[in-house]
Structure formats: structure tokens, C-alpha cells
From TrEMBL:
Protein name: Metallo-beta-lactamase domain-containing protein
Pfam family for this entry, one: Lactamase_B
Entry keywords, A to Z: Acetylation, Dioxygenase, Iron, Metal-binding, Oxidoreductase, Transit peptide
Cofactor field: Fe(2+)
Signal peptide feature range: none
Metallo-beta-lactamase domain sequence ranges: 12-172
Highest taxon in the source lineage: Bacteria
An example Gene Ontology biological process: glutathione metabolic process
Source organism per UniProt: Crocosphaera subtropica (strain ATCC 51142 / BH68)
Family that this chain belongs to: Belongs to the metallo-beta-lactamase superfamily. Glyoxalase II family.
SMART domains from the UniProt entry: Lactamase_B
Amino acid sequence: MLLRQLFDQNTWTYTYLIADLNTKEAVLVDPVLEQVERDLKLIKELGLTLHSCLETHIHADHVTGTAKLRQLTACQGIVPENATVGCADRFIRDGEILNVGEIKIQAIATPGHTDSHMSYLVNDNCLLTGDSLLIRGCGRTDFQSGDAGTLYDHITQRLFTLPDTTLVYPGHDYRGHTVSTIGEEKQFNPRFVSHDRASFIELMNHLNLPNPKKIAEAVPANQRCGQVPTTV
């Protein structure tokens, strides 16, 4: 299996390229519109065929590259079930497995950051957490139908019950981290260590974070799979 972690420095976003090196089938998780040419160049260099673009959720901080990649490669655009998206080729539900060649990608519902967020467990040992569990942090819960209690329940009862050796690949990092493990996050993540459900909700409800710079354009664009309106 090939797994590459690609970074967009303007939004601190990680995109993941996952591919079966035998069949050459590939999937991009959370592509960024401004990085489509970079991603396509890498896919071409490696001799891969893009099977699909897979979203963890409807992003508020960047526009997805799915629409452009779908136009250029005829790949599928896949989003979590119950997401308010009218243009997806298909939706993926909790527990469903997406097969990319011999690679198994299992969807694990982790709402709370948004009401339709998914994490993806790749071949049982690599966990792409999107904006649910971050390295020494977690996604905010103060917009897009977020709910701190729901996020706490899903991280502690679903992600933290995976083996401690499971590798954690987040959707963002703001301090230079690239990968962690479930065991590390259970031991060192300050959003969860020494916090029960009530104190976690209290913490998350008083973060007082500014809105993402692109929220006004990103959310409606991502509800169109990243299709940005053209101006005349």
C-alpha cells in the first residue's frame, strides 16, 4: 500500500493519497482545490488511476478539489451519508467498506465537529481522522451543527477503543506534527486527558475561536462538491 501525506500551507490541511501498488487504483482523501495540479502530477508520476475523492466532512476552511478532479479524471466523488450535498456520486455510511484494489477503507462515523463527519480506517491500522481527533487536539464544535458532547462520545467510545498502535493521521495540524497513535492521544491529548464528558463540553464551549477565513465561500462551494461559481 502507498500512503502519502500532502500539505496545503495556506489552510494547514492534509490531503492523503492512498493507492494499491498492484492494481494502481488510488483515492484522494480531502483534496484541496488549489492543490489539484500538484496532486494530479504526483498521481501521473506514480502511474496511478484516481478511483475516487473521499471527503471526511463538509469543510469550512478550504474548498475541496473534488469537482475539478472529477472533471479531469472521471473519478467518483464520495461524501459521508447525511451530508447536505446534492452532487455526490455516492454517499458512504458508517461501517461501510470502500475497496480500492486490495486496500480496505472502513468508514467510522465521528460526528461532533459537523453532524455528518466520518473517519476512515485504512487496512485496520491507519486512521484518517479528518477534523474529529487532531494530534494533541480535536476539531472545534461551534458551527456547522457541531456538538461537543457528540464529539466526545465518538472519540472516546469509537476511536479510543481501537488498538493503541493504530496510526492517527489528522485532517489538519498547526504545530508541525504529521502522525500520532491512538495510544499517544489517549495519554497526551489535553482535550481528553483529565476531562470527563461534562468538562470537555465546558472546555469546547469556551474556546472563543475566530471563524475560518474561507467559511463564507467554502461551505456553499463544498455543498456543490467544490464547484466554484464563475463570474461574468
